[in-house]
Amino acid sequence: MNQNTQIRPYTVDVPEERLTDLRDRLAATRWPDELPGVDWSYGVPVGYARELADYWRTGFDWRAAEARLNAFPQFTTTIDGQNIHFLHVRSPEPDALPLLLTHGWPGSVAEFMKIIGPLTDPAAHGGDPADAFHVVAPSLPGFGFSGPTTEPGWDMARVARAWAELMRRLGYERYGAQGGDSGAVISPLLGRADAEHVAGVHVNGGLGFPSGDPAEFAGLTPDELARLGQYQDTDRAGYAMIQSTRPQTLAFGLHDSPAAQLAWIVEKFKEWTDPARDLPEDAVDRDQMLTDVSIYWFTGTAASSCRFYKEGAASWGAPTGYSAVPHGVAVFPGDPGVRRIAERDHKVVHWSEFGTGGHFPAMEVPDLLVQDVRAFFGPLR
Questions:
Q1: What is the pLDDT of residue 1?
Q2: Cβ atoms of 55 and 286 closer than 8 Å
Q3: Residue 278 neighbours by CB under 8 Å, 6+ apart
Q4: Cα dihedral 94, 96, 97, 101 sign
Q5: Residue 360: which of 190, 110, 120 has the closest Cα?
Q6: Do strands 175-180 and 323-331 pair parallel, antiparallel, or not at all (unpaired)?
Q7: Spatial distance between the Cα atoms of 364 and 355, rounded to a whole number of angstroms
Q8: Sign, Cα dihedral of 233, 239, 240, 242
Q9: Which segments within 253-373 are labelled E, that is strand?
């Protein structure tokens, strides 16, 4: 096999000195001041951040998290000059449908730890063996164990093309795609880039962006109008404006201070998880959340993951042309999904709305997400 297309086994193994360095840095954190009584309205409260950082330093077991990650077969390969890390978990069911899962920011492959088992081996989780998938879950270029990107140009369309090459390299002639956050953009782009091989695309969250045509808003329900209003919510989008304009400046703090990296990511778990939950760990298992944060820290991908927004900003909301690949959408509380918008550029054959969960359903409500993925792909097998 050509060295450039070789698939190499991979094991997560963070050196002990990196763990010691993390604990030392957390212990030496210089904490900022804050205003009294503002709670989360100005960002992460210092008291909350200190308590969580102390648990990260003294209570969180990275080696246990590492073992959970290493329970899944992992590999790396080089595509378009970039190292790509991925989980590849084959189902015991021979007729399983290959399924590529794509995370976003501030996610990682750690998001999928609760859904890989039910997806690959439904019979062992009380499901129907006919619903089985072979799961491929890559780390985005510039994220996690894929390591930093080394050149400009890694936008979402380029990632989609790399995913098509990855699935070709793995020998999958026909496969499905699923994603949330940035994955909810990359997966439909993959459907366009590799339409002859993609059986269907399932996303959680929004699908497509409003065009600005007033006719698109006529007749929408108050709930749908509220969802679309998120696209104009500058308070909610502040992180994206920074990452899409000055990611390198931001990265100095995130790369040097684990407390900064922790606060920057956990604030999104607070903002984007189930609105009915008061704190991030009320919606997401705290150890799974810290596994995600730790992956960014140990791989040194604060800068490159922020750059992903800079690379893609020029294409935000740009026309993509109609996709005739079947699409399914699962909308969870806080998501901006509106069917009329989605149907403008996509063949939507499946639409679900849920009353619980949030932006990270694979972590918050894994059973609901698995159920919806199975329901969408069932007729497409």
A1: 47
A2: yes
A3: none
A4: negative
A5: 110
A6: unpaired
A7: 12
A8: positive
A9: 323-331, 346-353
pTM over 0.90: yes
Nearest CA to 186 out of 81, 83, 311 is that of: 311
Question: Which two tokens mark 280?
Answer: 């991030």
| Percentage helix, strand, coil for the chain under 3-state DSSP, each rounded to 5 | 50, 15, 35
Side chain identity at 342, as an amino acid letter? Answer: A
- Return the minimum-mean-pLDDT range out of 21-30, 126-135, 212-221: 212-221
User: Where residue 208 falls among pLDDT bands split at 50, 70, 90?
Assistant: confident
Torsion, Cα 326 332 337 339, to 10 degrees, reads: 60
Percent of the chain scored above 70 by pLDDT?
A: 99
Q: H or E element: which one contains 200?
A: strand 198-204
What gap in Å lies between CA 150 and CA 152, rounded to an integer? 7
> Residue type for 96, please?
A
Rounded (5°) CA angle 326-327-330: 150
Note the pLDDT tens digit of each residue in 127-152: 999 999 999 999 999 999 999 999 99
- In whole angstroms, give the CA distance from residue 183 to residue 197: 18
Q: What are the residue numbers of the active site?
A: 181, 309, 359
Is pLDDT larger for residue 227 or for residue 92?
A: 92
Helices 258-272 and 286-299: crossing angle in degrees, nearest 10, is: 140
The tokens for 272 are 């984007």
Say if strands 323-331 and 346-353 run parallel, antiparallel, or are unpaired: parallel
The encoded tokens of residue 37 equal 């009584």
The DSSP bridge pattern shows strands 133-138 and 97-102 to be parallel
Token readout for 250 is: 């931001």
Of 360, 182, 178, which is closest to residue 269 (Cα–Cα)?
Answer: 360
**CA 140, 68, 143: angle at the middle one, nearest 5?**
15
Instruction: Give the H/E segment covering residue 203.
Output: strand 198-204
pLDDT tens-digit readout, 347-367: 999 999 999 999 999 999 999
CB 106 within 8 A of CB 292: yes
